[in-house]
From TrEMBL:
Superkingdom of origin: Bacteria
Residues that span the membrane, as ranges: 33-55
Pfam family, one: PASTA
Keywords, ordered alphabetically: Membrane, Transmembrane, Transmembrane helix
PASTA domain segment(s): 56-129
Protein name stated in the entry: PASTA domain-containing protein
InterPro entries cross-referenced by the UniProt entry: PASTA_dom (IPR005543)
Organism: Arenibacter nanhaiticus
Length: 215
């Protein structure tokens, strides 16, 4: 009795598998399966293309441009060139005036010209100021001419000439002049300005002042 039931169960299972396999192969070659397969492929292709386009737009993958040479350009000229190259920029002020470049022109850029960068990269632009930075005149009154010259040079000023007056302190600075006018310690002048030192000649009052050029 048990063997008969077992054989019957195996037979039934085989028939079921055969039936299901037949239906499966029938479905594989059916129009419905073909339509669903085509739709699935279309959806997959659309998703892949969309993902690639998003990646391209968000990272500009594989698109590089050459950084233009902006040296000595005005800000308006620079802006036009940078925008045409599909780049961005940020202007940085410079505290150091460069006489070899026009005022308010480009004196430096980062990244440098010729570099390959991605589109929309930001360039950092340094602009030449309108003139030399102003510095304070150090207190050189009653300082020796030699030390006074060194102190002025340290802040970027130059001694154009030295004149002498009747004062007992020989080579001691008693007055500072700029373009013929008396100025005081703490006054501000542009760097590289040339000034005059008025020093004592060691003579008593009443002697004739002696004027010499500094060496």
């Amino acid at each position: 009795m048990f063997k008969v039931k077992k054989k019957h169960s195996v037979f039934y299972l085989c028939q079921t598998i055969k039936y299901n396999m037949g239906n499966f192969f029938k479905f594989l070659f059916s129009k419905s399966f073909f339509v669903q397969l085509v739709l699935a492929l279309i959806v997959t292709v659309v998703l892949v293309i969309g993902a690639m386009q998003w990646l391209k737009n968000s990272t500009n993958h594989g698109e590089f441009v050459e950084v233009p040479d902006l040296s000595k350009m005005s800000i308006s000229e620079m802006r036009s060139v940078v925008e045409k190259a599909k780049l961005r920029y940020e202007v940085l002020d410079s505290a150091n005036y460069n006489p070899d470049y026009p005022r308010f022109s480009i004196i430096d850029q980062n990244p440098p010209a010729g570099n390959k960068v991605k589109e929309n990269r930001k360039l950092y632009i340094t602009v030449n100021p309108s003139g030399y930075q102003k510095v304070s005149i150090p207190n050189i009154i009653q300082v020796t001419q030699r030390n006074a010259s060194a102190m002025l040079k340290a802040v970027g000023l130059e001694v154009e000439r030295v004149s002498y007056i009747d004062k007992l302190g020989k080579d001691m600075v008693y007055e500072i002049k700029y373009k013929g006018k008396s100025i005081s310690p703490g006054d501000k002048l542009p760097k590289t300005s040339k000034i005059e030192l008025v020093c004592g000649n060691g003579n008593i009052a009443g002697d004739i002042p002696v004027e010499t050029d500094s060496q």
